[in-house]
Amino acid sequence: MATLKRSDSIADNMPEAFKQSRYHMKRCFAKFIEKGRRTMKLQHLLDEMESVIDDQAQRTRVLEGLLGDIWFSIQEAAVNPPHVAFSIRPSPGFWEFVKVNSADLSVEGITATDYLKFKEMIYDDNWANDANALEVDFGAFDFSVPHLTLSSSIGNGLGFVSKFVTSKLSGSLESAQPLVDYLLSLNHEGEKLMINETLGTVRKLQMALIVAEVYLSGLPKDTLYQNFEISFKEWGFEKGWGNTAERVKETMRFLSEVLQAPDPLNMENFFSRLPTVFNVVIFSPHGYFGQADVLGLPDTGGQVVYILDQVKALEDELLLRIEHQGLNIKPQIIVVTRLIPDARGTKCNQELESINGTKHSIILRVPFSIENRVLRQWVSRFDDVITKILDLMEGKPDLIIGNYTDGNLAATLMASKLGITQATIAHALEKTKYENSDVKWKELDPNKERPGQYESHTSFTLPGLCRVVSGINVFDPKFNIAAPGADQSVYFPYTEKQSRFTQFHPAIEELLFSKVVNDEHIGYLEDKKKPVIFSMARLDTVKNLTGLTAWYGKNKRLRGLVNLVIVGGFFDPNKSKDREEMAEITKIHELIEKYQLKGQFRWIAAQTDRNRNGELYRCVADTKGAFVQPALYEAFGLTVIEAMNCGLPTFATNQGGPAEIIVDGISGFHIDPKNGDESSNIISDFFEKCKVDPGYWNKFSAEGLKRINECYTWKIYANKVLNMGSMYSFWRQLNKEQKLAKQRYIQMLYNLQFRGLAKNVPVATEEAQIPASKP
Ligand code: UDP
Ligand code: LCN
């Protein structure tokens, strides 16, 4: 049977595929256009197809082969009778657009712009037909820089850049001069590092490296740099090559190889040794950024956990690198957030706070102010903090990291003002979590934030505002996947008996099993011997704890096998100030009644003590239970890796990050949040197998841990991020012109459009506000 190949265009293949089932397809298209203009997602199309072709065997045949391949690649359909246009993603990163005439099934390949216009007609005809509607096209700047082309390379921009830099520096000796100039520019607070002007040309540097290597070969490997520093300085070398003769020699060898015949591996190795990053600024303005009593407050979830762990990992790695570089420099990391005068009992009203577990890292809180008036409540915006940072760091930072939309905006403004390399961490973007949040921006904007992920921002439209024909490009050489980890001193395997936090056991026993109903838990577990399936999240709609409760309620087999314990929110909807949370609380109470969950279901209120939470995951592992993450969409999903670190077999949503963290059927299981019956059966099957073969549980516990240690640790993360910081700082120098052009374009959008929109955001009053949920 014919199947879709990457080389085939969808527009070419579709007519052929329709021939397979022309009669049924015509009926389906007639159904699609029946309701007039609208957008539809794949599930929606499949549901309507089901109502047209009611025989399942027939339907399966229709969706076999080429037509099935195309059909299941559909991301969205825009219906404008008699036409239906499709956006189709045949493989990661690749998108095609086609327009089908429902009357005769003729197919026309269209551009992204035409697709967006077609879709806009559904929402705003005038805008769609306005010949001068604003089109944003970042692709127009990508003329001189090569891009990745393979789906399998997405997220590995660094590897690509080192190849590209390699080829730029190859050819003749002069080609490598930009690298020498870059080395000459390295310094710390004005003190030169690596080389000085004596070695200002490639040839001079090459010769000096040869002499130095011969010299170093005659020294014991562990000879300290100080012992040969004077001779090296005379030859033109400055500090930074290494702390011992052996390390200096290795670093020099990497560079000699690069200068002789550049290759990406030596290039990457050399850049990972360069002393370029000492001071880092991390922006995370929204939410309550603190080290205690903040988790569960509005806008305050994984991002806070992530940044505190990230700072520790980065500081450890910086200290190690600085020691290996033979330098005596104190690194500093400053997390910039907003000072909240009404701090709700947290430390968010303190200007400065040292970060626990670090030596040199701090939180700097800056109040938001409007016309000299400090805002007292939490709001999502940020102000200029440059002066404060320059003061605290006694100089410029070397790397600025922005988190989430607001933090990235502040980071971009600061990075472009100071001319510093910026890293952008998205955590969650606006579009895929909540359907149609782009085309319906006018309705949703006053309702505050909505979330989603990268590829859905390749092309999208905000009718009446701008049509982004080329936005985020996952093939951009700066696009990298650097996955976080979980703090392994808190989240470690349940089998490490000596390290377990046994002091929490009485409290956890109470939390899970006592029959008392209080502010911390409701419901109880009759049969304590059954394994526990466990979930923990903020009580937002997207986290779908209500979905999991309903799946459990409905599935008798599952209820016979395990108990359900969830941690999230609290129990009285009237005490919540968050609209989504209120609705979810009410829903859980309804489900408890509807499915008579008493005796099998425990609901525990949001937990803020991460050490106790770590032990809680392990106690669930002691019951030979599992963790379930049922979110409708999850950008990354820290709870998934926390659970896996504790050796708890994990079932997680196939929508978003967890689908990559877990290899389905090997290191855990994927579940479909939209198909509760299927998901709860996957969980039941697992526990049935465990009953027969206890080794089955152990296998998934061990494989989950293996996966974590191979791919998801903070050590791997910190290494990758600092290597990126080093390589991209050089890359920026090589691509100055293009960077400048893009920066000007962004600045114009910021000034002419964004600032105008921001002005329309109502300023918070002194009265208490109802905060929106964090995306
Ligand atoms: N968490 C917690 N108490 C709760 C709920 C969640 O401490 O009641 C922690 C959880 O252990 C994890 C983080 O909050 O570290 C949630 O991160 P995740 O990435 O899963 O989701 P987010 O909240 O960022 O969307
Ligand atoms: C935000 C989210 O929604 C989660 O999926 C992530 O795990 C968290 O940030 C940390 O990156």
Automatic annotation (TrEMBL):
<dbReference type="Pfam" id="PF00534">
    <property type="entry name" value="Glycos_transf_1"/>
</dbReference>
<feature type="domain" description="Sucrose synthase first GT-B">
    <location>
        <begin position="266"/>
        <end position="447"/>
    </location>
</feature>
<dbReference type="Pfam" id="PF24861">
    <property type="entry name" value="SUS_N"/>
</dbReference>
<dbReference type="Pfam" id="PF00862">
    <property type="entry name" value="GT-B_Sucrose_synth"/>
</dbReference>
<dbReference type="InterPro" id="IPR056736">
    <property type="entry name" value="SUS_EPBD"/>
</dbReference>
<feature type="domain" description="Glycosyl transferase family 1">
    <location>
        <begin position="524"/>
        <end position="688"/>
    </location>
</feature>
<feature type="domain" description="Sucrose synthase N-terminal">
    <location>
        <begin position="6"/>
        <end position="120"/>
    </location>
</feature>
<dbReference type="Pfam" id="PF24862">
    <property type="entry name" value="SUS_EPBD"/>
</dbReference>
<dbReference type="InterPro" id="IPR000368">
    <property type="entry name" value="Sucrose_synth_GT-B1"/>
</dbReference>
<dbReference type="GO" id="GO:0005985">
    <property type="term" value="P:sucrose metabolic process"/>
</dbReference>
<feature type="domain" description="Sucrose synthase first GT-B">
    <location>
        <begin position="448"/>
        <end position="513"/>
    </location>
</feature>
<comment type="similarity">
    <text>Belongs to the glycosyltransferase 1 family. Plant sucrose synthase subfamily.</text>
</comment>
<dbReference type="InterPro" id="IPR001296">
    <property type="entry name" value="Glyco_trans_1"/>
</dbReference>
<dbReference type="InterPro" id="IPR012820">
    <property type="entry name" value="Sucrose_synthase_pln/cyn"/>
</dbReference>
<comment type="function">
    <text>Sucrose-cleaving enzyme that provides UDP-glucose and fructose for various metabolic pathways.</text>
</comment>
<feature type="domain" description="Sucrose synthase EPBD">
    <location>
        <begin position="156"/>
        <end position="243"/>
    </location>
</feature>
<dbReference type="GO" id="GO:0016157">
    <property type="term" value="F:sucrose synthase activity"/>
</dbReference>
<keyword id="KW-0328">Glycosyltransferase</keyword>
<keyword id="KW-0808">Transferase</keyword>
<dbReference type="InterPro" id="IPR056735">
    <property type="entry name" value="SUS_N"/>
</dbReference>
<protein>
    <recommendedName>
        <fullName>sucrose synthase</fullName>
        <ecNumber>2.4.1.13</ecNumber>
    </recommendedName>
</protein>
